[in-house]
Amino acid sequence: MATGWAGDTAVQDQIDATVEDAIKRARSRMPSGPGLEHCEECDAPIPEARRKAVPGVRLCVACQQAQDEDEAFAGYNRRGSKDSQLR
Q1: Residue 78 pairs with which residues in a beta bridge?
Q2: Among 4, 30, 62, 69, which residue's Cβ finds the most Cβ atoms within 10 Å?
Q3: What is the DSSP letter of 59?
Q4: Is 55 within 8 Å of 36 (Cβ atoms)?
Q5: CA 43, 49, 53 angle in degrees (round to 5)?
Q6: What is the DSSP letter of 5?
Q7: Where are the zinc fingers (dksA C4-type) (predicted)?
Q8: Strand (E) or helix (H) holding 17
Q9: What's the rounded Cα separation, in Å, for the pair 85 and 66?
């Protein structure tokens, strides 16, 4: 198959680079360092087991779950229907 100036693995290289960038971006958003003893949102105590399991934890389980649910609805139409592309 003729690919012009691109190498034979150019498409796979681009896919790999995209995945690596997404992984780096996700890791950069993860908290690190010592966790808090009390939730930043509701001031509830964060159990020691959670602080050990999640380095840099800043939220209690309830507040983290609420934040994760809010982020799940980012407003993207992942179906890619023709109608959504016309807007």
Answers
A1: none
A2: 62
A3: S
A4: no
A5: 100
A6: T
A7: 39-63
A8: helix 10-29
A9: 30
